[in-house]
Amino acid sequence: xxxxxxxxxxxxxxxxxxxxxxxxxxxxxxxxxxxxxxxxxxxxxxxxxxxxxxxxxxxxxxxxxxxxxxxxxxxxxxxxxxxxxxxxxxxxxxxxxxxxxxxxxxxxxxxxxxxxxx
Amino acid sequence: xxxxxxxxxxxxxxxxxxxxxxxxxxxxxxxxxxxxxxxxxxxxxxxxxxxxxxxxxxxxxxxxxxxxxxxxxxxxxxxxxxxxxxxxxxxxxxxxxxxxxxxxxxxxxxxxxxxxxxxxxxxxxxxxxxxxxxxxxxxxxxxxxxxxxxxxxxxxxxxxxxxxxxxxxxxxxxxxxxxxxxxxxxxxxxxxxxxxxxxxxxxxxxxxxxxxxxxxxxxxxxxxxxxxxxxxxxxxxxxxxxxxxxxxxxxxxxxxxxxxxxxxxxxxxxxxxxxxxxxxxxxxxxxxxxxxxxxxxxxxxxxxxxxxxxxxxxxxxxxxxxxxxxxxxxxxxxxxxxxxxxxxxxxxxxxxxxxxxxxxxxxxxxx
Lengths: 118, 367
Known about the structure:
A: mainly alpha; 65% helix; B: mainly alpha
């Protein structure tokens, strides 16, 4: 069974060749004339002000945490869906309870305003 | 390892991969031309006309230009990560095609027998043809293909975040943050919309999902229409296409995460975006539109549709979905970022969840 992953490995190697060969061939062909203003970060023509890696909105962290929780929930549903015909009513009730807990969290997050952006 | 094993798991897959990568690169190049042409005609323009007949050589000219242009690494950037980011973005977008079924199992059996028989004994040929997924219209058939596609295509997000961070410039960083927030938000609804199909197909192998659609005698779009619409919309958001192309909103963020990229590295990001468009269309085709099956696979009156090779049916459906991608771009304006997050979490997520519960409830009557 593991042998069916060998082609995936080969595919990764072939897919890596494409950008590596492209960049390599390009290096031989393209010009290289750097200058101070050409290498400056783009900021609509003015000199860059401060460092770009500054603080950013905390909402991005909230979204990241929500993603981890809800995406893991999705992964739990995959095996459940595949053997749903064997679980039948038991599986249905079990999943309603599982999703019920998820929904409580979801409405809590909604009421807390974590899904509002502005 | 014996020669049968090497031929059936290394040599023949390698040939298939080479064909797929070549066709995919060509398809990406001509998809850009198709997009420019269709958008132009929607806006009552002509689009590219100069290079070749009706601009048919335009993608080749563009490719040459990308290779010949100077490749600038900004002085403040992290050079190593800056180089790696486009590669991390492109490779997963291609690797996903290792599990997508273009045609049914056994499709290449005749060709393989013909090609191998001059070199090997009949018994060897027989064992090669019968091993693994050698004779199928796909590179490999793994039993967790759906999870494989979801997880591998998520790796592309890392490339975008790294690009934004490595550039050390304000617009790319903002674009990368937006992009990752958007992609992870829509991935949740995307995962939920697939579960509706899995409930009916009861398999995670893409080949088996198509075969189940043949057994059940209908495409799953007819039993899971809501899931299909959700999947397609979330696919659009995942691939950063209009109306969800906030990460590269030109009017606010210049080029988004690839503002600092030029030359061939920019081309790599571009190719990754178009490759994931093709992936999204191919996945939608496989899960909802019956993959390589013709329309009405079991109705005798339409049996003449089986005369068209399965691969052609698959490519036709993918092309149709790609056309819709472009059509939507030419028709709809861009969302605002707060609207985008609102739709992802407050509309698509509950609808997807409801769809799973309703489907599971209705299915109880059939098992």
